[in-house]
Write a structure and sequence with these properties.
The chain is 37% helix and 14% strand. The chain has 13 helices and 10 strands. The chain is globular. The structure holds iron/sulfur cluster (SF4).
Length: 313
Amino acid sequence: MYSQIAKWNKVKNHRHLITFITGCILPYDKEKFLKLFDIVFNMADLPKFPEMLRQYGVVSPYSLELSWGREPDSIKDTWHINPHYSSDWQAFIPIQNGCDKFCTYCAVPYTRGREISRPSKEIMDELKTLVDKDYKSITLLGQNVNSYGHDKRGHEISFANLLRQIGEFGKASGKDFWVYFTSPHPRDMTDEVIEVIASYPHLAKQIHLPIQSGDDKVLIRMNRQHNVEKYRRIIHSIWRRIPEATIFTDIIVGFTGETTEQFENTRKIMHEFKYNMAYIAQYSPRPGAASARWADDVPHTEKNDDSISYQMI
Ligand code: SF4
């Protein structure tokens, strides 16, 4: 992001250019980014984006409608924007936004708000359109995909049933495609979800299950709401029902207060769970997230010690 904006700001010397940034932006980040970008906004403010651009004299179909005295169709939310796909075989479908979990290192619940599930009919419509166009790899996206439906209990189907509908559609379609999802939370990973993945060939046998740490005390301080034993039961359930499954995870190294022994517990579970892939991040405090109040006391050189990381895999 920093290298990109430096390039764009140079372009501004000889071309009219408006730069903007969005995503998970905390108030502290907003102040910082406003020094670099013309417009900074949270995803929730996307419907106001045409208005923001209008203040810079940019004419969009939306602002033309306004200037003609007509009420343009407003953008309700990001789910109602027709996506432009950059690939003709791989696509992503947002199914859920926000998070109710409040892990202490994470800004998402503050920047994206609480969990909101997209109507399953819209998800199925988008998926069917993609399959009609011969897309092969489709990923369901959300901060907590497997909490899908929890915010609309009794009015919306569960994540397991959404997968089941996709699996049934796949069987009836006679087409080859694979549906992935990311990211799920171990707390909401039920045997039913694993059973459904095992039952339908169109549901990819690849499960991304972030653990973050292999030490229960660290998991409590992270407020992950699962412990190693619960996570182990899920992995064993996957191995039993889908022996061929590939399993990915996320790990944070050098979380505030992490001891060498706690780090070693993470190394142990890396071996035990035989991950096919892991996204390993060095802990860094996000201003505004709860853990930012605690000392970032694991030295950078130790977090960055890749002689240890290589032995892990
Ligand atoms: S790490 Fe994931 S589960 Fe935890 S607060 Fe952030 S988005 Fe939610």
